[in-house]
Amino acid sequence: MSWLERSPIQGIINQLKPLPYPETDCSGKTIIVTGANVGLGLEAARHFVRLNAAKVILGCRNVEKGSQAKTDIETSTNRTGVAEVWQLDLTSFDSVKEFCQRAEKLHRLDVVVENAGVATGDFVQYEGYEQQITVNVISTFLMALLILPSLRRTATRFNVVPSLVIVTSDAHAYTSLTRARNAPSIFEALRGSAGMSGRYSNSKLLEVLVVRELATEMESSPKKPRVALNLVHPGLCKSKLFRHITWPISWIIAIGFLLLARTSEMGSRTLVSAALAGEETHGKYLGDCRMMEPSRFVRSEEGKRVQKRAYDELLGILEGVEPGITKNI
């Protein structure tokens, strides 16, 4: 179950426990990490370069900061010519499309870690939706479905099981989408400014629900071979995710960070573990470098009904953005 539903003491123990240091060789692999110029994404990309990946693509909104991250990685690993910086702005559907079109030209693509996300209390809309819904949900799955054919081609060509990792959060357990799921449309209910205090948790719950449904659909798809799609919760980490949160919540988060937060490097180990875990993690929720259960709501009968409804609504939105995209499933 989610650590938020376990005993507080056990949750604290798990949060403070050191995680396994990544040692799996990545020779020959091409890996994409989004949100890779800071925090978890930067440290995960650094691990992949250190583990001998042939190419590690840093998907970054700010190319200049991405270039600084690339230099940092090259200096710390003593490996040059491996990391590349590609522009990716999840507030723009066109940017996501351009990124995935570029990825189609890669000779192989073994791993995609969708780490980029946003957490904020400020109401701003991008592409007609509140930014956390646009970035954390719609653009995240727009990218997932657009890049899936590239992963499948690699699976066929090299007889491997590529991985598609969605970085989520145990914050999904803070919500059950009560207001949105009782509205005529879940995504329409989350389009406006009402309920902003819970919007990040809502976006994370939608990620969990959609991945579980998508994983099931992929299993029944005639488009073989397999791609391992999973979710990973990195734990509370000292990253830049909450940099847009304002006072007084920012102070509460700061205290939590001071007492419990993992370093970005420690948290990034969960991302690397999920990316290299294999086919047995398909459709699963991971944390602390192992498989876990999502929240009780997700596992409930009502959660399953909301899961199907949210998934169907999202596919409708994605078809409007990129007609025919659902054929990639």
**CATH topology label:** Rossmann fold
Outline: globular
Count of domains: 1
Largest beta sheet: strand ordering: 3-2-1-4-7-8-9-10
Regions with pLDDT < 50 over 5+ consecutive residues? none
Structure description:
Strands 3-2-1-4-7-8-9-10 form an 8-stranded mixed beta sheet, sandwiched between helices. A two-stranded antiparallel ribbon has the order 5-6. By secondary structure, the chain is of the alpha/beta class. The mean pLDDT is 93. It has a single domain, classed as Rossmann fold (3-Layer(aba) Sandwich). The two termini are 28 Å apart. Helix content is 47%, strand content 12%. 49% of the residues are buried. The chain crosses the membrane at residues 241-261. GO terms for molecular function: oxidoreductase activity. It holds the Pfam family adh_short.
In short:
The chain is α/β, with parallel strands linked by helices and 329 residues long. The chain has a single domain (3-320), classed as NAD(P)-binding Rossmann-like Domain (Rossmann fold), CATH 3.40.50.
